[in-house]
Design goal:
about 45% strand, single chain, alpha+beta, Alpha-D-Glucose-1,6-Bisphosphate, Chain A, domain 4
Amino acid sequence: MATITESVEIKLPADKVFAYTTEAGSWPRWQSMLPEAEQTSPGKVGVGTTFKGLVRLMGLTMKWTAEVTQYEPNKSWAKTITSGSIVNKEGLFCEPSEIGTRFTLTYDMNVGGFMKLSSPMIVRAMRKETKTSVGNLKRLLEGQSTSP
């Protein structure tokens, strides 16, 4: 298992950052590795909510499904994402900071099956994508906050 963690400071309150980052429709806008994402269960997001979509990594496009396993409004959530033999436990954390919110995204990756041989390359690609994604999120949200 490999752990990936990236953080960024965003000049918005935690509730705004949390609401945006837990909305499946927003994920393809700031996570380039997710060309498609949608909530598949009805109602508000909470423990048990399910999602599906596509992930594009290292030239491969794969389907994924996910289920929320922990949820604390405006603070944190966790979900388990399954894509073939790759299982990711994702955590998202929003903490108040001096300038607004400290946003942290973590993945605990477990690569199995035939993909296990490619595990070091997959982890490297995920680290790069995660760093890019939190940077995209900052630019997108701070750009929105200064729009008229």
